[in-house]
Amino acid sequence: MPDLNVWYGAAFSDYTCSMLWIKALHIVFIASWFAGLFYLPRIFVNLAMVEPASVAERERLLLMARKLYRFMTILAVPALVLGLWLWLYYGIGRGPGQGWMHAKLAIVVALLGYHHGCGLILRKFTQGQMQRSHIWFRWFNEAPVLLMLVAVILVVVKPF
């Protein structure tokens, strides 16, 4: 690793350098997890529109949805672990005047609920029990966008 003290001065410690690496990886895993949260409901829209006689199309979409759900679950784990590490070990968002972190954690819990809900919906599609329309899934698809918007504003602006 290059000597960052040369570039940024002696105040740039190993502590800060490792925190920035963890923060960067956290952002990458969060972005990847969100890609799945955005795309899986789009697959649900297509599944809701499949004609009953189109078995091959339905099975192909279900395969895509199962693989995506499994992959985005794998991505969510390191995103959450790294986020907890930043919060608990490095103290980001701890202490007085950090209400934005409590609000962000509430958003994370809501997103985990959304993720779990996607799994339940996928199970219902697999069992042939899903009765919702493609229009409902188009609206359902907007929830992670709004939650991400609020989370980013909380992290960047820190309004509380």
- Total separate domains: 1
Structural class: mainly alpha
Number of helical elements: 6
- Range of strand content: under 5%
Total beta-strand segments: 0
> What kind of sheet is the major sheet?
none
Helical residue percent?
A: over 70%
Indicate the mean pLDDT.
Answer: 92
Uncertain runs: none
Terminal CA distance reads: 36 Å
Helix-strand pattern: HHHHHH
Rounded radius of gyration (Å): 20 Å
> Based on CA inertia axes, which overall geometry fits?
elongated
Can I get a quick summary?
78% of the residues lie in helices and 0% in strands.
Q: Could you characterize what this model shows?
A:
With 160 residues, the chain is an all-alpha fold. The protein is 78% helix and 0% strand. The protein has 6 helices and no strands. It has helices at residues 4-8, 14-49, 55-88, 99-126, 134-140, 143-157. The longest helix has 36 residues, at 14-49. The protein starts with a helix and ends with a helix.
